[in-house]
Amino acid sequence: MSLRERKKAETRTAIADAAAQLFSERGFHHVTVGEVAEAAGVSKQTVFNHFANKEELVFDRAAEVEEIIVATVRDRPAGTTTVEAFKAMTRAFWTRVDDLAEDRPQAGFFLIVERTPALQAYQRELGARIVDRVEHEIRTEARARPDDLRPRYAAASLCGIHFGVADIFRTHVAAGDPPSQFLKALLRRADEAYNMLADGVGAYPER
């Protein structure tokens, strides 16, 4: 990264961290963007230069997560099914949190979302956008007709399992449960779901 890009990234992180702290203390709806700007030591306009809306202050890594999921289909190796690729991605995505401290700041994110129905709705909107993009990748690769429902079925099913893990993980962490107590069992359940899905999606689309 160039010096300018690094400074922009640092500013974005500082704003998101300040927002997370305020939201955790007072609740999402009781904090204004102006207060976030003041806590981060920047102007209100600077906040909007980095985040399109208040919800993005919570889901500050949404674009990064979206690209990881889409790339799981788009960039998978030849001979790897979409189910196999998603199964590996889900396990890798969540296993890394085992290495985080029990009091990690990321826990605040799950607590904020768990307590705020509006953020859960926003998260579903983000998920729907990801499903659309995954469907596009599958449909393009399979050269499927517009009325072929298989790409939609495959995308919704694959993403549904990954998002389901996220929902259960959020509920556990918001309740104060450390990942070491539940994550391994949760990922086994995810593997079981992907194995079941393999019978339906199979090798579609073949690569």
Protein described:
The structure is a single chain. With 207 residues, the protein is an all-alpha fold. The chain has 2 domains: 3-54, Orthogonal Bundle (Arc Repressor Mutant, subunit A), CATH 1.10.10; 62-201, Tetracycline Repressor, domain 2 (Orthogonal Bundle). It has 10 helices and no strands. Helix 5 runs parallel beside helix 8 (117-142) and helix 6 runs antiparallel to helix 10. The longest helix has 26 residues, at 117-142. The radius of gyration is 19 Å and the shape is globular. The protein starts with a helix and ends in a 6-residue tail after the last helix. The mean pLDDT is 92.
What is this entry, summarized?
With 207 residues, the protein is mainly α.
